[in-house]
Task: structure prediction
Amino acid sequence: MGIGSTAAELHAGLVEELRKSGRITTPEVADAFAAVPRHLFVPGIPLKEAYRDDAVFTKRAPDGTPLSSVSAPWLVATMLERLDAAPGDRVLEIGSGGYNAALLSRIVGEKGEVTSLDIDPEVIDRAESALRSAGVDEVRLLTGDGTLAVPDGGPYDRTVVTVQATSIALAWLEQLTADGRLVVPLRLRGLGRLLTFVRAGDHWVGDGWDLCGFVRMRGPAALDPMATTPLGEGVRLRWDGGPPPDADALTTALVGERHEVWTGVTVGVTEGTRPVVDLWLATVLDVFGRLHTTGTAPAGVRALPGGSPATWDGTGLAHLTMRPADPGASRFEYGVVRYGGDASTAVEFAHQLRIWDRDHRDGPGPVLRIFPRGGPECAARVCRLLDRPGPAMVLAWP
Ligand SMILES: C[S@@+](CC[C@H](N)C(=O)[O-])C[C@H]1O[C@@H](n2cnc3c(N)ncnc32)[C@H](O)[C@@H]1O
Result:
């Protein structure tokens, strides 16, 4: 093998990359990454791929949908940093694979305890043999539905969910200690974000908001896939709950009257405001989804990369857009395009962008409040009760 291509060298290179990118920030997580060889958890693939900062898909449904993976190292590192587990902690991992459990086992040490739970017995078998080959024998592996946690298994100091959820299972909260912490990737109105929850009196408060995608939850609490509505050639609307859009009316609107409203709100190209603006719009717009376009879309219909936040009614659709705000395109201005009907929804949409700019742009950002019992309180200035089963979830902007 050439220079830089042995497992040890590739392993050290990955750890260094994660440190440099700021994904690994603490010595505890760095030590765990340095101690656990990832290639033992993804047998059968070239070493270079095992040490690439990418997810390795280990099981797919017949239609190609990923069912299980060994998560991307950058995401595993981010989750471990957010989890903040310490030696002696009892940790529950929901969604197995072996790698993250081995890292956790190193962090909590001999006095700690790691339980890793997966709905799929094949995943548990694979995790078991990988952990054995890595010489990690302290992890407790269980097969079962993670939304029930481990009946009578708590209390846990830390729970990390490594599969995408759209709601918080009561069992995750009930089984945590008083100063317990829950890390979970959630899909909120179609936006994938990693949230970290801690107790705040009678409820839980989550923040963090790292962008992330994940394998979807299976079993009794399986997620509905995101709905996609094609709007003619090269255009589709993706939405997550709520009444379906009138596809015929919106397809016609896209080739009809077009209005633009510009906000005067400008952002630097490196400011990275899009994720937070997307969350703001998901909070304030009653009807919310994302518009995606390809090169075959009708002339003038062009969504932003990753999809433009959009809202619609029976006669038309409005979406977020941007244009250069200076000749060098170092700043961009947010605006709204409306197709069809009257322009008043675009005016209201643009007004909401100005409110974000005025009241929240420099603020602390949103929190997600979970109320396990009783009615939620909407004491914040702006909030939205998310329509999900289970404990009430309120997206709130202080
Ligand atoms: C991204 S993988 C987990 C990655 C893993 N933590 C690692 O070490 O990289 C997600 C796992 O969640 C599992 N899963 C899906 N739905 C589940 C459920 N309801 N309860 C428990 N596990 C579930 C899948 O079978 C899959 O193996």
In short: The longest strand covers residues 176-188. The chain has a mean pLDDT of 94.
